[in-house]
Amino acid sequence: MSSTELPSVPPANVLPKVAAVRVAEGERLRSVRLPGMTLTVRSRPAAREGLPPALFVHGLGGSSQNWSALMPLLEDVVDGEAVDLPGFGDSPPPDDGDYSVSGHARAVIRHLDASGRGPVHLFGNSLGGAVVTRVAAVRPDLVRTLTLVSPALPEIRVQRSAVPTGLLALPGMARLFTRLSRDWTAEQRVRGVMALCYGDPGRVSPEGFRHAVEEMERRLQLPYFWDAMVRSARGIVNAYTVGGQHGLWRQAERVLAPTLLVYGGRDKLIGYRMAQRAARAFRDARLVTLPDAGHVAMMEYPETVATAFRELLADTGESAVGDQHDDRDDHDDRRDGAVDDSAANETTGG
User: Fold this and answer.
1) CB 235 within 8 A of CB 104
2) Distance between CA 82 and CA 282 in Å, rounded?
3) Do residues 265 and 199 make contact, with C-beta atoms less than 8 angstroms apart?
4) Which residue, of 142, 243, 268, 339, has the fewest CB within 10 Å?
């Protein structure tokens, strides 16, 4: 898709005012300026000082709010932050318009390097799972453990229900979908998203549904909403086609950190059958399968995911991964450059 097929995006400093992002009780939002981008970071005060840091990364169309159910369940074992990837949540678009998997991975790396919080317990869902897999592969010094909830790793046979998401990346599809859905209400859109992402949409509380509708209304006012969605969807598709050492499965094999894999049996976007392949690919993997969960287990079954992560901590301990983080200077030459190399193998369509 050429860049002319989507509406032009005004500079961040002239973006229209929209409704405020929701901040749950106990959460804090802050804006972090990094080279080429500005990120919004959501955090909760840790239960006590000295807890190891954690970073949570959302999926396509999501935001840091996707982790608001899980984060408080872990605040006694980690000092958690959740990031809005560029163009999502309350983060403006990246200056270079790069929404590739490598572009998002670069954003995570720059944030961790600038904050000095690494190594962290790194979490990712869907697109975020692909992003943090790449981060863990190219910057092992930044990662204590890796937790992947329905990670978007390449599938040969994509589920039929996931096809529309892939089609979003094709030229002209965003304009077509916008025309077809112009009369849809925010409530209808949210019901559609929940039917796709949840194993049982009935688990969403009335309050949760209302907040989701408010967030959808807010996002639809953003002039870059569809641009971020389309280019990020294209980034996933392109990452699926990359082979060699920069392929996501090859990078999964390079991950050193102890890895927790969470897959849902009712996931309509990532095939349940990929769980076993992922368990074989990551060298130090633990697999949790939730037969009734959909694509966002950390939102649908946060207690179960929290328990699985606690078990990961108990099984590994800090000493299990300490040796690979002792000397961060050894990895100085693997900072953004390592991700830039993989980005050269992805096309972002302008």
Assistant:
1) yes
2) 24
3) yes
4) 243
